[in-house]
Amino acid sequence: MDDRPTGWRTRIPRERARPRWVRESPVSWQLAVLTVCFGGFMSQLDASIVTLTYPSLEREFGERLAAVQWVSLVYMLVTAAVLVAVGHVSDVLGRKLVYLHGFGLFALSSAACSLAPDLTTLVCFRGVQALGAAMLAGNSVALVSLVAPREKLRTALGMQAGGQALGLAVGPTLGGVLVSTVGWRWVFWINVPVGVLATLLGRYLLPRTVERAGGARFDLRGTVWLAVASAALLGGVSVFSGTPLPVWSGVVLLAVSAAAFRGFARREARAPEPLVPLSLLGDRRVGWGLVGALAGYLVLFGPLVLVPLVLTRYGESEMRAGLLLGALPAAFALASNLQEHLLPRRWDGRRRALTGAALSMAGLLGLAFATPVDRWLICWLAVLGLGLGLFTPSNNETLMRAVPRELSGTGGGLVNTARALGTALGIAVVTLTLELGDGRGAGSVLPPLPVLTLAAAAALAGAATLRAGR
């Protein structure tokens, strides 16, 4: 394909090649995957670390919690709104180019956040920071899928998923340390040197884009429809996750999302160069793979949020609760990176994903009967993490193999949008549980309501694997 820019991309700079010694190295793909994992870790870390700044922001700016929560909410909404569009743009302009500019924007906006004189300014810069994070997250799966050898794709996607999950899990602990020692502004300042380092690493370790999608005309109307649909859907779910908005607003947002998704589908069916080809979503492996990605993150985030809340209500310290909960992301990262050694090599992706879904259900059931003082608690958390670590990369491998290489950025954006929605749904399950009861159930770590919901999600993930594999 002609690599010369055309149409709306004529003024975009070209990507630079890696040094020859990197290209010819037998571990070049591993270095590239580690660079991508670094970006995924940072983007997800920043999504979770900011919650620890709420008390300090309330005191310094004299604002109520309802206003302060927009620091996190705007990040989540902007990211969900632009993920797919960013993936499409990277398919046209170059995935390395968009990724590196994303890290630069992420670092600059982080510096601006740290210098914000008031809450309104901070919220605005958080929106810009979210755009940079979307340029990282929307490209992560695509870059890994393109750089890893075919026989190593599942392992590489496992590394990427483990990096994201670890960032989300480490965020609260690191945020607590920074806020309690050097202040809330360092939660943002720490991103600046990291962003500079990651940009340099990406410049030399990430490969240029070889296969590009056509893109003489940008589907702006399709982008707007999808952005409204995604943001309204995530915002509607967030209303039931403790967001300081009335319940009726959540119903309205969900209705707006449904109408916008319908408008998006009609637009894409007529667009000469659609943002997301409907044939891509019509592929069974892609459609059911997205369902599996959503269900997997729903299962992950229910316990990540609920377990520490229940433990602290039973008198455990935040430090001990965090250490116990660490078994979940640690096992996730272990299984996603070492699954080739944990399961028979002859097993295909579907069998591995089904095994992961079954282990996830076993871990959830164990947590349903475990008490906060149960010595088996950490074991059940680890079983759940192992299951999700086996399921996630296998599910993503099946999905990304079905996506044409020139549309890998669009496919990666869809995956991360599904993950964001699964995250919001998992938090919503926890919030509803705490609203309907005291969150303790019959003395167990996971009360009956979330267990049933999360187990259903794990079963749905397994069903999605079966459907995608037919």
UniProtKB/TrEMBL annotation:
InterPro entries: MFS (IPR011701), MFS_dom (IPR020846), MFS_trans_sf (IPR036259)
Classification via CDD domains: MFS_MMR_MDR_like
Topology relative to the membrane: Multi-pass membrane protein
Keyword terms, alphabetized: Antibiotic resistance, Cell membrane, Membrane, Transmembrane, Transmembrane helix, Transport
Main localization category: membrane
Regions crossing the membrane: 21-45, 65-86, 98-117, 129-149, 161-180, 186-206, 218-241, 286-309, 351-369, 375-392, 413-434, 446-466
Limits of the Major facilitator superfamily (MFS) profile domain: 32-470
Claim: Transport is one of the keywords in the record: yes
SUPFAM superfamilies registered for this protein in UniProt: MFS general substrate transporter
Cell location: Cell membrane
Domain of life: Bacteria
Protein name: MFS transporter
